[in-house]
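Morning. Coffee machine broken again, so started the prediction first thing and wrote up yesterday's gels while waiting. Chain of 196 residues, entered below exactly as on the submission form.
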Amino acid sequence: MREDHAVVIAPARRALFVRSGALALSATAIALLSGNDSLAQGMGGNAAQDVNILNVALGLEHEAIAAYQLGATSGLLEKAVLDTAVQFQSHHKGHRDALASTIRKLGGEPVAAKPDSEYARALRADTLKSQADVLALATKLELGAANAYIGVIPSFKDPALAKVAARLAADETMHWTVLSAALGQPLPMAALTFGA
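Came back before lunch.
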């Protein structure tokens, strides 16, 4: 696995949010995403724009689910590590379901997951030869996801959307921390490691 792979993934995930216009998600979408359907009633917003933004995030969650599936079916993971990978995959499925539900409530069509073979090519699954390789890939993807969600928080005018993004980032950061520890990597020495 190339060592510069993380440099490519982390900024790319954050850039997808910025290019998609994630900085302008409507109050309606925020209310729906945070599970407050009654608050969303009667709010205005640009549903088409919201759907596009949420579909970018949904696409990233599909990628994470596929990455964990690749690891789980690789035969490279010990039982305890496999159990953790499956648990993290279930978190991403929860993110996926919340995003897809919000997209549907906005009248949109959730973006479909790509075939596993496309994710395998994009994630260079053919280079995974050990448990450490699988964990390193997952760690890099989780770091990219955490940074993507953290990267958009400061731009939100609505605290509810900032809270949703922070909760998603917290899940990704937790995953990164556990995976880094499993790889035997030290905790970051500097403060303010994420979102830079």
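The domain at 5-182 is CATH 1.20.1260.10 (Ferritin). Going to sketch it on the whiteboard this afternoon.
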